[in-house]
């Protein structure tokens, strides 16, 4: 997929240091970011004006970045669905301009003194949906979706070494990431699932019990959904709603784990539905029908 | 809260460049990261040995970081619950050592040539739960929970400028962040809620209909929970489970928005439950009872 997308970019070339040679339209670039599935080629007679306008806009944005004395800014790539920080590199004007036009996270390699697009050798591109600048304009986020593991070691992210584990003398086998709460909960449930075959003494954890008893699990999911609804129907306070929502989410995640599903898949589905107004339209049609 | 936690740290001092003067125990620091609620003071006669052991461990970790020619590494602060990248600064050995001992995200200010702890003037500390190093050991994540807005402008994160918005000539009023999918969905729902008073022509969005009709919303939440359960009971495939899970999550989030609740609150509740084994124990007790 990554490769097939790349041919669209051949018409959007960047020459050093920041001369955009754009033979495609502004709308093309904008739509790239809007996640349209195909490459749009505009035959409009206004293309030349649009290109000039985009060129000027990109230059203004790049001029606003506070590049350091080497012409670089910190660039951080983040997974749009999971929130995982995938990697951090540095970007110069050309790298950001290339990322804008190609929507593939592109950096400047300080060791090789060259531009490089993450994935150009591994094919694990990071498909950038938007770029953010910080308040000081010297730090950049590439928010996007990776095609595969980002780290050259094959790990999902480059940040797999926990300092606390190091301080506790625990071997870090590359399977611990800076997990946000949702990912951490998912990981805990996955661990419980992985331990199901191991005989246990003592009181089993609640997650283990749910994993072993599908009837109990489904009964709890329906019960927690009902309790969440009752916080609205019976006008309970918002902290009660948040607590019940937590129960719904946790129990649903246990079911998802039993089905070998991942929260990242769920979030990707939601992103596609909402970016395409899918769920809105589908539901609206359903109800009107 | 931030201030009250700080007194615990007075016994854990760091002197330049990386001499840890630790009069408290290793366990103290470890428990700081384990989010124990109170400061533990160990009177053990083994404290001295433990301190030496910790000092040695911290030194080993700091030695393993590839500091640049100015003795710095990139340090990124991330919200453990939402996944939001809050800010990026630079850290030297002393900054990381201070963060390890104090669990407050601490950086090195290149402009002022001094150590600074985020929150020391605003009181909006970032309470660090764990620290991660990347594969090259030259980039650091402080994963933690902010006490309040991180940016000096009062914004939740410093990254509030979307390049795509800039390219589209849209004014960026500081209310657009690099939202991950869950936050983006929550933001969309909040926007729909904010528009409820605005008369609309044409077909209302599904979210608007749900927000306006509590009976419909609750009926959908119960229905989607039931459909999720049936993916397990009727042995449907995992993509179906992920899709139904998406429906459960979305509809529950609409209810949460109606109750003025936030997903960050839900995630914080889950984090506390699981870090304290709360939900596991509570449910286990409930069922056994």
TrEMBL record, chains A, B:
SUPFAM superfamilies: all-alpha NTP pyrophosphatases (SSF101386), HisI-like (SSF141734). One of its GO terms (molecular function) is ATP binding. Pathway: Amino-acid biosynthesis; L-histidine biosynthesis; L-histidine from 5-phospho-alpha-D-ribose 1-diphosphate: step 2/9; Amino-acid biosynthesis; L-histidine biosynthesis; L-histidine from 5-phospho-alpha-D-ribose 1-diphosphate: step 3/9. It comes from the Eukaryota. This is Phosphoribosyl-AMP cyclohydrolase domain-containing protein. It catalyses: 1-(5-phospho-beta-D-ribosyl)-5'-AMP + H2O = 1-(5-phospho-beta-D-ribosyl)-5-[(5-phospho-beta-D-ribosylamino)methylideneamino]imidazole-4-carboxamide; 1-(5-phospho-beta-D-ribosyl)-ATP + H2O = 1-(5-phospho-beta-D-ribosyl)-5'-AMP + diphosphate + H(+). CDD domains: NTP-PPase_HisIE_like (cd11534). Residues 87-160 form the Phosphoribosyl-AMP cyclohydrolase domain. Keywords: Amino-acid biosynthesis, ATP-binding, Histidine biosynthesis, Hydrolase, Multifunctional enzyme, Nucleotide-binding. GO terms for biological process: L-histidine biosynthetic process.
């Amino acid at each position: 997929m990554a490769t097939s997308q790349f041919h669209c970019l051949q018409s959007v070339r960047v020459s050093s240091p920041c001369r955009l040679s754009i033979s495609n339209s502004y709308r093309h670039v904008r739509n790239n970011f809007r996640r349209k599935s195909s490459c749009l080629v505009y035959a409009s007679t206004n293309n030349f004006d649009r290109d000039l306008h985009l060129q000027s806009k990109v230059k203004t944005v790049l001029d606003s970045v506070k590049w350091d004395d080497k012409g670089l800014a910190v660039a951080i790539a983040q997974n749009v669905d999971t929130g995982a920080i995938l990697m951090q590199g540095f970007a110069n004007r050309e790298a950001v301009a290339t990322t804008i036009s190609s929507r593939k996270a592109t950096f400047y390699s300080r060791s090789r003194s060259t531009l490089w697009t993450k994935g150009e050798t591994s094919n694990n591109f990071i498909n950038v949906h938007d770029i953010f600048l910080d308040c000081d304009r010297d730090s950049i986020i590439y928010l996007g979706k990776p095609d595969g593991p980002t780290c050259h070691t094959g790990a999902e992210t480059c940040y797999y070494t926990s300092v606390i584990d190091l301080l506790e003398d625990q071997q870090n086998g590359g399977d611990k990431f800076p997990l946000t709460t949702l990912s951490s909960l998912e990981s805990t449930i996955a661990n419980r699932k992985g331990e199901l075959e191991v005989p246990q003494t003592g009181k089993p954890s609640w997650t283990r019990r749910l994993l072993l008893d599908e009837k109990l699990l489904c009964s709890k999911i329906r019960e927690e959904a009902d309790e969440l609804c009752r916080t609205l129907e019976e006008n309970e306070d918002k902290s009660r709603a948040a607590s019940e929502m937590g129960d719904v989410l946790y129990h649903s995640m246990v079911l998802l784990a039993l089905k070998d599903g991942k929260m990242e898949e769920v979030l990707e589905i939601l992103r596609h539905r909402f970016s395409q107004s899918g769920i809105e339209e589908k539901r609206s049609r359903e109800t009107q029908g």
